[in-house]
Amino acid sequence: MGMMVAARRIDATAIEVRYEFGFEDRFDRILTIDPSTLEAHVEDGDFNSAASAITAKIVSAWRSSGEFPPRMLFAS
Question: Which of 28, 31, 55, 65 fits a 20 to 30 Å CA distance from 4?
Answer without folding.
Answer: 65
